[in-house]
Design brief:
CATH class: Alpha Beta
Number of domains: 1
CATH topology: Peptide Deformylase
Helix content: 10-25%
Radius of gyration: 15 Å
Strand content: 35-45%
Distance between the termini: 30 Å
CATH architecture: Alpha-Beta Complex
Amino acid sequence: MAIRNIRKEDDEILKKKSKEVDVIDDRIRELIEDMVDTMHKYEGVGLAAVQVGILKRILVIDLYDEKTPIIRLINPVIIKTKGTQEVEEGCLSFPNKYVRVVRPNEVTVEGLNEKGEKVVIKGKGLLAQALSHEIDHLNGIVLTDVMIPGTMEYVDQSKK
């Protein structure tokens, strides 16, 4: 598959609301696999299609553990939340920047898999955070829109 260019924080497309996917065909499935490859190349936990310049309601998530397979979701919607957690969060579209945000501690998300089958995913902790973050992207909401004011830190990766 192909590695896609990730749109960065000043790109206007990141503020646009993504459109629902009407037809799941080979082009959509190829986009999803490109997104997985791109997410892995840049060591991200999640990636929304808008971050690679495609205004479609598609996201991928990988927690990099054996218990949780890679999540590929089309037209995801949060249908239930429970509790809150204050967490540190980064974003592939905001390289080397980290903020504190308040996210749900648990979420239930409905969507479609790459075969067009309805799926329900329940996530706690990091998975709830990742699902919330990527669904925000699909709604044109970025990290700086939800951060706790004054919490942004820049980490110079070249000094690690």
